[in-house]
Amino acid sequence: MVSSLADDPIDVFEEDLILRHALACLLNAVREALTTGVGVRAARVGGALLVYAHGAAAAPRINTGFVSLYGVIDTSLEITDPGSGWTPRMDSGAYRGSRVGLHGAEPLGGGNAIVFTLENGFSSADGALQVPGSIFNRQAWLGASGAWGELRVGRQYSPIYIPFKGDLDAFGAGTIASGLNNLSKITPYANNAVTYLSPRLAGFSTTLMVAMRDASEDDGNGIDGYYVSASYRLDRLHLLYARQQTHGSGALRANLGGANYAFGKLHVWLSFFNGDGGAPVYHGAGGSLSAQYRFSTNARASLGYAHVRDYTTPGGSADQFSAAFEYSMSPTLLLYFSAAYLANHDDSSFTLRGVNVTGLPVAYPGAPVAGVQFGVIERF
């Protein structure tokens, strides 16, 4: 639900089908408010600002739909040595890509609703669009939701990206600390996509996506890619698997999966990944082990290790060791600190990066990379 963005910053912003949960949290509050007052009202429910209006004369035609504005501003300072000396820089979106967006829903009755999301990424360092010339580069989709699940059409997060960004390592696959992010390759977004997201039944859920090619891509059968993910939850255990196969220029096959388990204040993640293709070409396989300890509801520390075998170069591989600390100043303000050391072997050239941050290239093949990072995330 929307409130989870603030309650548990490690949990991915995109993870649990925001609109489906937002409907459950907000719809009853909207209906109650609409039947007890006249005029224009605004209510903050579950961390989202909800604005609605109605008049007494229009009461028989009351519309209980809603649109909520949300956003994330993620700015950090990073100092990294890619083998050529320490280089300072300011990053935007290293942990939770800076963005602004709109969620909306129009109830149809019977627990069903039309839903949509429009979301754009930007740089909090200079105010530039994340992708020049694109208004909603992260998400632009329309769908329908109900007890049967959710159907979406348009530009969306890929099913392999959703578990990747929250359930497979202690760092949420973000900041320089995430070896899972630094050493693997997936497709985070898909255009012209049709997606079905199932409800959770007996602990199981799945997401299926087919993405069609743009009109300019006339090669092949018109299918740009297939994506699937599966999830199983049992008490404090969570098991996940996801796969993608894209076609055409820069085609990429990738698999990832893993498990996480909460032992009281200690949470442990174990994951694997592999991939072949993409642009630039990636061909590797590896795994990640990480853990997080909660000192309080506000403070938590994480440690992690990741390894990858790099098949693009003979004998190539890399190991990363990481540490991170986070402190929630308020339900919407998060401070984070990350540190990492990445050891490339033979001619491998992996580097430290972030969710929306391109890493500094290594000074030479096989060069080690070290870095520290301090950041602030504000949600609204």
From TrEMBL:
Looking at the UniProt record for this protein, which Gene Ontology cellular component terms does it annotate, in alphabetical order? Answer: cell outer membrane; pore complex
- Taxonomic superkingdom: Bacteria
In terms of CDD domains, this protein maps to: gram_neg_porins
- Which InterPro entries does the entry link to? Gram-neg_bact_OMP (IPR050298), Gram_neg_porin_domain (IPR033900), Porin_dom_sf (IPR023614), Porin_Neis (IPR002299)
Compartment(s) of residence = Cell outer membrane
Its primary localisation, in coarse terms, equals membrane
A Pfam family of this chain: Porin_4
Q: Which GO terms describe its molecular function?
A: porin activity
Protein's membrane topology? Multi-pass membrane protein
Tell me where in this chain the Porin domain is found. Answer: 49-346
Protein keywords: Cell outer membrane, Ion transport, Membrane, Porin, Signal, Transmembrane, Transmembrane beta strand, Transport
Task: List GO BP terms, alphabetically.
Answer: monoatomic ion transport
Provide the assembly information: Homotrimer.
Q: Please report the name of this protein according to its UniProt entry.
A: Porin
The organism is: Paraburkholderia sprentiae WSM5005
